[in-house]
Structure formats: structure tokens, C-alpha cells
Amino acid sequence: RGEAGSTGPLTGRGRDLGTGLPGTLSLPPTAFEKVLRRHSRPIVKAVQEALAATSAELSCDIFEQGITLTGGSAHNPLLADMIADATGLTATAADRNDLCVSLGLQAMLLS
Known about the structure:
single chain, alpha+beta, two-stranded parallel sheet, 4 helices, disordered N terminus
């Protein structure tokens, strides 16, 4: 698990409200875990509902291959972990996950 993103510190730049001077702040990903969990729960619930409504044939493929995450949320390793915990299935980020939709559309239009 955790293949869906980086575990390094998150860094932001801006004005320090205490000094008024420009500054940089680095925080470990764990500092955001509570917020990420709260915003990931509806996604996990939607995945569970989609799996419950999935045909047996497709369910078999998903069981064998796992769930592939796409888009910006795929960068969040916590989401992959939460989906895996809730479903018992492997959840990993797709290669070039930020471009999956546009590449799929391109392939469809060119075929």
C-alpha cells in the first residue's frame, strides 16, 4: 500500500503571518491525515456502492486485478489505504494517473 503517492514532507511558501516576511513551511503528511480522512470517506463509500452494483463478471476481474485509482486523488496514499481496508482489495495509482481520462478519451476518439 501507499503506492499512490509520496510520503515526503509537504512544503508551502508564502508570507509568515507572525513576521510579515516571506517564508517556507514544511509539514509531514501525517499533519493532514485527519482532514484527508474526512474528505476521503465519501470517495471510499462511493467505491463500496459501485462495487455492490457491479456485475459478477466485472467483479471477478476487479477481485483479481484490484482497484486502479486515477486523477488527482490518486496521489494521496491514504486514499488507497482506506479503499483497500474498506474493500479488502488492492488499490494502486495508475501510471500517469493525472492523464488517464484524457488519454482514454484520445484513444477512444482515434479508434
